[in-house]
Amino acid sequence: MSPVDEQRKKGIRRTALIVAAIAVAFYVGFILMGVLRS
Amino acid sequence: MSSTVADALDHEHDDHGPTKGIGRWLFSTNHKDIGTMYLIFSLTMFFIGGAMAMVIRSELAVPGLQFVHPEFFNSMTTMHALIMVFGAVMPAFVGLANWMIPLMIGAPDMALPRMNNWSFWILPVAFGILLSTLLMPGGAPASGWTMYPPLVLQTGDAFPFLIFSVHLMGISSIMGAINVIVTIINMRAPDMSLLKMPMFVWMWLITAYLLIAVMPVLAGAVTMLLTDQFFGTSFFLAAGGGDPVMFQHIFWFFGHPEVYIMILPAFGVVSEIIPTFSRKKLFGHDSMVYAGSSIAFLSFIVWAHHMFTVGMPLTGQMFFMFATMLIAVPTGVKVFNWVATMWRGAMTFETPMLFSLAFVFLFTIGGFSGLMLAIAPADIQYHDTYFVVAHFHYVLVPGSIFAIMAGAYYWLPKWTGHMYNETLGKAHFWLSTIFVNVTFFPMHFLGLAGMPRRIPDYSTQFADFNTIASIGAFGFGLSQLIFVWIVVTAWRGEKATDRVWEGSHGLEWTVPSPAPWHTFTTPPKARIAEEAFE
């Protein structure tokens, strides 16, 4: 794997983790925020 | 085991093609195959949802109860909407995104191909579950796609299946959105800056952020419904101290951005097509990006215009009324830019352009009726009438669906390697355009005359316009069979060139037609490709 591909792979992993973390936080957060307020 | 496309490209790719048989589709990680599956799925759902629309229009063709029980009629309106929104329009745009975003930005595939496979295959499961509710005791959900409590809590055995399927649809959309964002951020051609991206890619990037922001809100809302029904909570039950109006706030906080999720990619498609057939560059490229972003931002602060009639302080009404009207500004920028792109262009009117022109004209009609509905005191008259039905169908049918059709015709030669039958394409366009107006324009008059929506029977004063609308609906539905025939016979047409259209620009037109199974394994130079078209 060339250095450029290596760099791209790192970028993909980093962005995927950040966006997925935000999505999961929103998804679980909204559900918990709603349900735990009862 | 490779989890990202960079891993997958670690070995030489030219040594293999697609696997044989059903495995190619079940386990596919190829963006073109997954895009194709999304598009076929969407077309299937379009016809299932369309069949439900035919049941609705058959029942409403003349006054009185003809064919179906009122409860089943309500199930039809509910299921038609859920299927068209989540099963037809959204997956169609995801299909176009899967096919075209990697080709447009010079990427070899989507960034997370395995998740891409999951995103797709969750959908047939979700809609299998949703459609199975038609056979359950108590029937399919009948509370409208908005699922307002307390009505939705009267759903029979179908209720938990409805909630589960909505969760699955949301998860699928979120996974697709993550993939789009990661792909666009990381896998563009090296010399393609963000503001150099094609407009379809830009609009999809904005849409993906919207999806991640609002699908969880829907998930939260329906989970609260679930706990109200089965776990003794009273979020939305007045008897337990809850507030049913709160559900409406939460739902529309999702629901209004959802409207833009269904129209922003359509803006992107049309912004690709109009420059091609005007043989000019898109007028105001950057302003289109800012307008799209503004629309996305504003979509979060207008939700309560859907619920003026539930009662809210005057200040609230004024805020939501003016915020809604504000959306006309960036939308107007877009319409202006499309018209300015055509201005003094060497225009030709192939099928994709015809659908795009109809989009601009008819979507604007839907936009104007939206402005009328935004006026709080007027909305109290229009609310829950056929005027609303006319408005959102103008936005979604000659809006979103015409843009999908335009995109399908535009890119079909790139997908199949053959030109489609232009004569039949134009016949499809004209019949669709005539019948879509015959169907939905009279609904404005019905609404203004006071006909309520979501009813199986009506006063005889509404008979004539309803009959016309029903004739139009059947005409529109039958016209779509032409599209199926065009797609099925697309491989018989003359061989398409790589560039396909004389005025087309962009990386997707540099690859052969049909696009090979693997493209851009070496990142291209976007600027050089663009200069080659000049």
Describe this structure in words.
The complex is a heterodimer of chains A (38) and B (534). Chain A contains 1 helix and no strands. With 38 residues, chain A is mostly helical. Chain A starts with a helix and ends with a helix. The model of chain A has no long low-confidence stretch (mean pLDDT 84). By secondary structure, chain B is an all-alpha fold. The longest helix of chain B is centred in the N-terminal third of the chain and has 36 residues, at 70-105. The radius of gyration of chain B is 23 Å and the shape is globular. Chain B starts with a helix and ends with a helix. Residues 10-14 of chain B have low confidence and may be disordered. Chains A and B meet through helix 1 of A and helix 1, helix 6 and helix 7 of B.
Quick gist of this model?
Chain A is mainly α. Chain A is built from one helix and no strands.
Strand and helix map with partners:
The complex is a heterodimer of chains A (38) and B (534).
Chain A: H1 3-36
Chain B: H1 5-8, H2 23-26, H3 31-60, H4 70-105, H5 113-132, H6 158-186, H7 199-230, H8 244-278, H9 285-298, H10 314-326, H11 328-342, H12 351-374, H13 376-382, H14 386-416, H15 422-448, H16 463-488, H17 526-533
Helix pairs in contact in B: 3-4, 3-5, 3-16, 4-6, 4-8, 4-14, 5-6, 6-7, 7-8, 7-9, 8-11, 8-12, 8-14, 9-11, 12-14, 12-15, 14-15, 15-16
Structural class of chain A: mainly alpha
Question: How confident overall, as mean pLDDT of chain A?
Answer: 84
Q: Can you summarize the main beta sheet of chain B?
A: none
* Residue fraction in strands of chain B: under 5%
Radius of gyration of chain A: 16 Å
Write the element-wise H/E pattern of chain A from the N-terminal end onward. H
Helix percentage of chain A: over 70%
Count of individual beta strands of chain A: 0
What is the helix tally of chain A? 1
Note the main sheet of chain A: none
Shape of chain A: rod-shaped
Beta strand count of chain B: 0
Strand content of chain A is under 5%
Largest interface: A-B, 24 and 34 residues
Return the structural class of chain B.
Answer: mainly alpha
Anisotropy-based shape of chain B: globular
Task: Please estimate the helix content of chain B.
Answer: 55-70%
Instruction: Specify Rg of chain B, calculated over alpha carbons.
Output: 23 Å
The N- to C-terminal Cα distance of chain A equals 53 Å
Measured between the Cα atoms of the first and last residue of chain B, the distance is 43 Å
